[in-house]
Structures are given as C-alpha cells and as structure tokens.
C-alpha cells in the first residue's frame, strides 16, 4: 500500500499545475477496483490456506469466525490505536465502549479489526491535536455497538473539531488527508519508515471497501467546530455476495 501511495503521490505532483487529482474520477474508480480485487484475492488465498491448517481455532471456518464479538474486536483495535497514538504524541485520549459483550455474529475478525482501528485512529489524532495545546482534558471517544436485525452497526464519535462541509466529499478520495503526508521522494525511505499516525489518505476509502466487500458500508457525518461521527454497518444476514468489481 505505501508503494501505491507513492505512485499516486508522484502522479499528484505531476498534475498539480494542470488539474487536481480529485477532478479525475477515473483514477479513484481504478483504485477502488484495484483494492477491492486485492481484498478479494487475499481473502480467497487466506481462506484456502486457513482451511488446510491442521490446527484450527474453535468457531472458525478458515478466516471466517462464526462467533465474532464486535466488542472484543473493538477493544483490541482500540488498544492498538491508542498504543500508536502514545508513540506518536506521548499521550492518548480515553475510548469508552458501549455495547453487549455477549453479542456475536459471523464475520472476518481481521477485516473488522482493520476498519475499527482506522476509525479510532482518526478520532484519536483529531482529539489529541485539538486539545494537546490546551489545559483542558481531552474528551473521551465513544464507541457504540448496536445489534440490528439486518446489520451490526458500530458508531465512533469524537469531539476532534470535525471536518469542513467542503471537505466531506474529499475524505473518500485517495491521498486526501488532513494530516501531513509522510510520503517522501525516496521510495526506500518510505518502505522502511516506521508506522505513522495518518497522512497517506488511504484509511477511510480502504475501510469503506472492506465494509462493502461483505455488503456493509461506512458513513461519516461531521459537525465542523465540534466533532465527527462514523457509522460502520456490517451485514449480518449472509445474503450478500462478495462485491467484486
């Protein structure tokens, strides 16, 4: 993914004086197809390999777990995101989780972890950067897990200042980020660089593709000057085919 981000970054630099990258929808459509295919290929290969492992975890059919606890997966993703935030900023806001810990459904835990990690990471960065230079304690981020008939929905709310209305459409485009880009002109430095908090501009579009792969979706609603709510919808009916381009 960093290699692809480097390529798009170089293309963006070449087009900077002629046309904005966001004005070329065919590039984003290509990247959507490319990454959706990549998710599908990795899922198929991973499923095949996992099915032929001699030792399988209880409740698993390959990569698919029939008893995924979204609360437990969210807690693990939160720990990983807060650990990254601590390394980058030296501190991290609290994250409060609300939901039934006994709720389970069939899903791929690695996909769910990836999506929740990205969303929580974005909220942590927004809150930390907004309140780091003030004497106020940063308000906690709230993660709510709701059990519906069709979907399991995870809502992540923060008070990180929100996104301007003019920028909402841009958050789904590749290489748009409110953070400083970590991409350098040297590919080797990029590939060897430590993990960064944000800046590639891939977190939200890739997370939405993961959600849509199994018939779910990701929505973001923001209130500039206050904060952002992200709604992650996960299909639980098992009646949707994988979304191949």
Which structural class should the secondary elements be placed in?
alpha+beta
Low-pLDDT ranges: 190-194
Spatially, the strands of the biggest sheet line up as 3-5-6-8-7
What is the H-and-E element order? HHEEHEEHEEHHEE
Shape: globular
Number of strands: 8
Rg (CA only) = 19 Å
Taking the alpha carbons of the first and last residues, their distance comes to 19 Å
- β-strand percent reads 15-25%
Overall mean pLDDT stands at: 85
Number of contiguous helices: 6
**Residues in helix, %:** 40-55%
Largest sheet: 5 strands, mixed
Overall description:
The protein is globular, with a radius of gyration of 19 Å. The strands form two sheets. A five-stranded mixed sheet has the order 3-5-6-8-7. It is built from six helices and eight strands; from the N terminus they run ααββαββαββααββ. Mean pLDDT is 85; it is low at 190-194. It has 245 residues and is of the alpha+beta class. One of its GO terms (biological process) is regulation of glucose metabolic process. Its EC number is 2.7.11.-.
Question: Quick summary of this structure?
Answer:
The chain is α+β, with helices and mostly antiparallel strands. It has helices at residues 2-15, 25-51, 70-89, 109-131, 187-192, 203-213, and strands spanning 60-61, 64-68, 95-98, 105-107, 141-147, 151-158, 217-223, 227-235. Residues 190-194 have low confidence and may be disordered.
């Amino acid at each position: 993914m960093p290699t692809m981000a480097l390529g798009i970054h170089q293309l963006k630099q070449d087009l900077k004086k002629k046309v904005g990258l966001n004005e070329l929808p065919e590039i984003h459509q290509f990247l959507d197809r490319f990454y959706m295919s990549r998710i599908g290929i990795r899922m198929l290969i991973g499923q095949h390999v996992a099915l032929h492992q001699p030792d399988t975890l209880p409740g698993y059919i390959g990569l698919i777990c029939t008893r995924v606890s979204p609360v437990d997966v969210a807690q693990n993703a939160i720990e990983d995101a807060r650990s990254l935030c601590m390394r980058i900023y030296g501190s991290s806001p609290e994250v409060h989780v609300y939901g039934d810990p006994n709720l389970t459904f069939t899903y791929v835990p690695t996909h769910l972890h990836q999506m929740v990690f990205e969303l929580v990471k974005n909220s942590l960065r927004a809150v930390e950067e907004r309140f780091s230079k003030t004497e106020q304690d940063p308000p906690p981020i709230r993660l709510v897990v709701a059990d519906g008939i069709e979907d399991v929905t995870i809502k992540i709310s923060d008070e990180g200042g929100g996104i301007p209305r003019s920028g909402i459409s841009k958050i789904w485009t590749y290489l748009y980020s409110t953070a400083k880009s970590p991409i350098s002109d040297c590919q080797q430095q990029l590939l060897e660089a430590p993990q960064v908090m944000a800046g590639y501009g891939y977190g939200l579009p890739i997370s939405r593709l993961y959600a849509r792969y199994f018939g779910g979706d990701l929505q973001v609603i923001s209130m500039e000057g206050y904060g952002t709510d992200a709604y992650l919808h996960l299909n639980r009916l098992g009646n949707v085919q994988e979304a191949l381009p």
